[in-house]
Amino acid sequence: MVTRMSRLFLRTLREDPADAEVPSHRLLVRAGYVRRAAPGIYSWLPLGLRVLRKIETIVREEMDRMGAQEVSFPALLPKEPYEATGRWVEYGDNLFRLQDRRGTDMLLGPTHEEMFTLLVKDLYSSYKDLPLSIYQIQTKYRDEARPRAGLLRGREFVMKDSYSFDVTDDGLRRSYADHREAYIRIFDRLGLDYVIVQAVSGAMGGSASEEFLATATNGEDTYVRSPGGYAANVEAVTTVAPAPLDDAAIAALPAAHVEDTPDTPTIESLVALANERFPRADRPWTAADTLKNVVVWVRQPDGSREVLVVGIPGDRELDLKRLEAQLAPGEIDAFEDADFAKHPALVRGYIGPEALGEESESGIRFLTDPRVVAGTAWLTGANQPGKHVFDLVCGRDFTADGTVEAAEVRPGDPAPDGSGPLELARGIEMGHIFQLGRKYAEALGLQVLDENGKLVTVTMGSYGVGVSRAVAAIVENSHDEAGIVWPAEVAPYDVHLVATGKDAEIFDAAASLAEELEAAGVEVLYDDRPKVSPGVKFKDAELIGVPTIVVVGRGLAEGVVEVKDRLTGVRENVPLDDVVAQLAAR
Ligand code: ATP
Ligand code: MG
After folding, report:
1. Among 5-9, 197-201, 239-243, 321-325, where is mean pLDDT lowest?
2. Does the beta carbon of 562 sit less than 6 angstroms from any atom of ligand 1?
3. What is the whole-number distance in angstroms between the Cα of residue 298 and the centre of ligand 2?
4. Residue 568: helix, strand or coil by DSSP?
5. Is 486 a member of any domain?
6. What is the CATH number of the domain that holds 509?
C-alpha cells in the first residue's frame, strides 16, 4: 500500500533536539523516526519502526539460514537462575530489579544466558539432541550509567541474542564459526562499514570472543589494527614486554639510591630535575624511565571496595576502560583527597613500590604494567615527601602482586603477534560473539548423556547483535548535512515520490505512478501534501533519506519526471513511461 505523507503520523523538525550529541540521534529525532520517552528509552514512530523491522528481517533471515531456530523469552524474569550464576549481584547497578506484589524479587532481562540454558536443560538430555542453536529478537533492559547518543546506548533496546549448545569443544568451535559467518552476512547486508576485532570476554566469562565494530569517528570503542592483520578492541590488546633478566644479570645492576627531589609531584618536574641534578652517562632521563603509581578504588558489585595501586611507565596514561575490562565485574572509583588522609602509607606524588603489595605492611594490592619485568630499573617514588628512588629494580628491590593491562595503547606500539605497528581508530560495537564454554551449563547443571552413556556438561556460545543500535549506527555511517542516506536494504521505503505545484493533473499522475510502483514491488512514500511548498517537500525528502527521490512536477507536460539519487545527488529526467521499469530494476 502506498503511504501518503498527508496521513502519515509524522512531524519533521527544523531544530535539533537539545540533548542530541551525535548525528544519528539528531537526525532520527528530526526526521521523525523516534521520540524520547525517558532518558535512554525511545518510542518508535512509523518510519522508525519500518527500519527496525527491516533490520530484524535481515537478522532473522541470516540466523534461520545458518540453522538457528527462533524462540521468544519473557523480558520479566525470575531472580533464581541469575542468583545461581552469580549475576544477580555481579550485574550491579546495571540490572533493573523489581518486586511483584508478593515481594518476590524479579528482574528485567539484560541478556538471557541463564534462561536459555535452563530451557535446554528442561527439554534435552542426550548428545543426539545437539548441536542446537536458538535465538530471539527481543527487548533488553540495562540501567546504563550513561545512556547516551539516542539509540546507540539505550536503557531499553532491541537485541538479537543466540546461544549454541554442543557436547564437544570442536562442536562449539563450529557453532561459533557458523555464527561468525552469519554475522558477516548480516553486517554486509546492513550496508555497514565494519571491522571484526578480538575482544575481552569481561563479565560474561568464557574464552574466545570477537566484536563486530562499525567504524565511526565518534564511536565509544577504540580498536587497533596492524599492517599484518592483527585487529583487537583496545581493551583486549596485550602489551609486548621485554625479556626478563636472570638473577646474575640483575645482581650486576647498580644499587638503588634514594635522592632528594623537592617539588617534583609530576613526571615532567621529576624528569627535569633528574636531568639537571642526576644526569645519566648514556642518555637523558625520559618519562619512560619513571614508574608512575596510580591509586584507585576497585568497587565490587556487592558494594565492597579495595584500594589498588597500578604502576605504569610514566610516559603513559592509565586507560580506565582497559583497567576496568581487566577487573570486571569490579569498577573503578576515583581516590579522593580524603582517602589519602586515611591511608598514610600512600604519600601523594611520591608513592613507591616498596610501600605496596599484599605482603607489605600496608597490604595494598599493587599491580604493574607488563613492561615491568625482572631486571627493569625504575625511577619512582620513595614514599617520603620530596624523595624519589633511582635504580629500583623489579625482581630485586620489589615484586608486584601481578601485572595488569591498564596503560594506554598508543599508535605505533607493536602488535602482540609481531605483525607490525598498531594504528588506532574508533567504532561502535554492533555484535559480539563469545565461546562461553561450560561456565553457565555448570552453574545451572545442564548435562546430557554422551555416546557412552556418561553424563557430560554441555559447552555453550553466546552471540549478540544490537538491532536498535544498528538503526543509529547505520545513520552514523551514512548521512550528510541535509539528512539521512539509507542503504537500500534497510531504507523505510524504496522511493520518495514528491508531487509539486497545484495542478490536479500532477497529483493524479503522481498518485497513479505511486500505485504502479507499488504494484511492481517498489515501496513508495508519496508526498501528496496539497498546500506544502516544493522547498519544504524537498527538504523533508532529504532529511528522511529514502535512496531514490522522484519528483512529478512541471516536466509532466513534456512527459518526464525527475529521478534523483539521494546518495550521489545525481538527477535525471526519465520519461514517465519508463520510470516504473527503471526503478523496479534497482
Ligand atoms: P557495550 O560494551 O557497548 O556496553 P556490551 O558488550 O555490554 O556492549 P553485549 O552484552 O555484548 O553488549 O550485547 C550484545 C550487543 O547488544 C552489543 O554488541 C550491542 O550491539 C548491543 N547493546 C549492548 N548494550 C546496548 C545498549 N545499552 N543500547 C543499545 N544496544 C546495546
Ligand atoms: Mg559486548
Report:
1. 197-201
2. no
3. 21
4. coil
5. no
6. 3.40.50.800
Rounded Cα gap, residues 214 and 270, in angstroms: 42
Cβ of 157 less than 6 Å from ligand 1? yes
Q: What is the pLDDT of residues 21-80, one digit of tens each?
A: 899 999 999 999 999 999 999 999 999 999 999 999 999 999 999 999 999 999 999 999
Instruction: Identify whether the C-beta of residue 241 lies closer than 8 Å to the C-beta of residue 438.
Output: no
CA distance 37 to 422: 42
Quick one: 256 and 386 in the same domain? Answer: yes
Smallest-distance ligand from the CA of 325? 1
* Residue 487 in domain: no
Q: Which of 429, 471, 474 to mutate to test the pocket of ligand 1 (most atoms within 8 A of CB)?
A: 429
**Mean pLDDT across 130-155:** 94
- Which CATH number fits the domain that encloses residue 76? 3.30.930.10
pTM: 0.91
Is any atom of ligand 1 closer than 6 Å to the C-beta of 432?
yes
Q: Supply the angle between the helices 467-477 and 46-65 in degrees, to the nearest 10.
A: 110
Our answer on whether the CB atom of 483 is closer than 6 Å to any ligand 1 atom is no
Distance CA(509)–CA(494), nearest Å, equals: 19
Whole domain around residue 309: which residue ranges? 247-403
Total structural domains within the chain? 3
In a domain, 384, yes or no: yes
- Whether 151 and 28 map to the same domain: the answer is yes
338 and 446 part of one domain: no
Q: How many CB atoms lie within 10 A of CB 565?
A: 14
- Give distance in angstroms: CA of 111 to centre of ligand 1: 10
Nearest to 383 by CA among 256, 250, 255, 251: 256
What CA–CA distance (Å, rounded) separates 33 from 24? 11
Which of ligand 1's atoms lies nearest the C-alpha of 142? 27
C-alpha 429 to ligand 1 mean position (Å):
7
Q: Which atom of ligand 1 is nearest to the CA of 204?
A: 10
pLDDT in tens, 555-573: 998 999 999 999 999 999 9
Q: What tens digit of pLDDT does each residue of 400-421 get?
A: 999 999 999 999 999 999 999 9
Q: Which 8-state DSSP code applies to residue 7?
A: T
Strands 524-527 and 495-499: parallel
Note whether residue 70 is domain-resident. Answer: yes
With a 6 A CB cut-off, is 290 part of the ligand 1 pocket? no
SS3 of residue 272 by DSSP: helix
